[in-house]
Amino acid sequence: MNSIQSHYPPAPNMVEVTYECHACRYAYQQTASVQRVAVILNRPGVSQGVLQFGGQYLHCGEPMKTRSCELRRIQAPLVLKPGGQLRIYEVLINTRVLGCQCGFRMEIPD
Q1: How many other CB atoms are there within 10 angstroms of residue 92's CB atom?
Q2: In this structure, are residues 60 and 100 in contact, taking their beta carbons and an 8 Å threshold?
Q3: Closest Cα partner for 110 from 70, 73, 76, 74?
């Protein structure tokens, strides 16, 4: 599972689940009951990857914690019209570096 979000419109005991098939690499989204999701999340074995649950990110079964905040600059060259001058455009993005107990880290937009 990649993501579990509130069902919209709100429905008792239901959530929207997004997951990816490991065989075909295609992403799927569907509505599921909280009980069915709990059965999958509580299966024995190690789940792979990061799970987004509402505003939390989980890795190794633990919520990841903010380790630091960064300001990242993304630059790209762009010509706006044929024969025009090449210009460098940039955007600044505030990010959070998240980490878990096992040492895994990831950076997300803030």
Answers
A1: 8
A2: yes
A3: 70
The answer to whether residues 50 and 36 touch, using CB atoms and an 8 Å cutoff, is no
Helix ranges restricted to H, 23-102: 34-41
Phi, psi of 78 (to 5 degrees): -150, 135
Exposure b/e, 22-45, CB count within 10 A at least 16 = b? eeeeeeeeeebeeeebeeeeeeee
Residue 100 backbone dihedrals phi, psi, to 5 degrees: -125, 180
Q: Give the pair of three-digit tokens for residue 12.
A: 């008792």
Residues 27, 16: contact at Cβ < 8 Å?
no
Q: Average pLDDT by consecutive 10-residue portion of the chain (110 residues)? A: 76 83 78 80 66 74 86 92 91 92 87
Write down the pTM of the prediction.
Answer: 0.56
SS3 77: strand
